[in-house]
Specification:
disordered C terminus; about 100 residues; single chain; 4 helices; mainly alpha
């Protein structure tokens, strides 16, 4: 057995230290979402609906909706499940009415 095989075998062993580190990292969650206004819109559509499938902002909106992630516009976070807050009003709350 060479050194790389031995390292691979030892690296796959689950220790309590590795399990604790994994739990800690899992509680931290994912990375910070980039605001939608920072994502380039190539189709020029106003609002959150009607973007083309080739538009990067449209793909980001579709992904966030599918995962239940918040739609972030200019520092304001509005989750799709917030009662009484539609996607269009989320844009208005954030002060952004059109795609730049």
């Amino acid at each position: 057995m060479d050194a790389s095989e031995a390292a691979r075998a030892l690296g796959s062993i689950r220790t309590e230290k590795k399990a604790a580190a994994s739990r800690k990292n899992g509680q931290l969650g994912g990375g910070v979402l980039k605001p939608l206004v920072a994502i380039h819109c190539s189709c020029g559509v106003e609002g959150l609906d009607g973007h083309k499938s080739t538009c990067k902002r449209g793909r980001a909106i579709k992904y966030r909706r599918s995962k239940g992630l918040p739609l972030v516009m200019m520092g304001t976070q509005v989750t799709p499940s917030d009662p009484g807050v539609s996607d269009e009003s989320a844009i208005l709350l954030a002060g952004q009415q059109t795609c730049p």
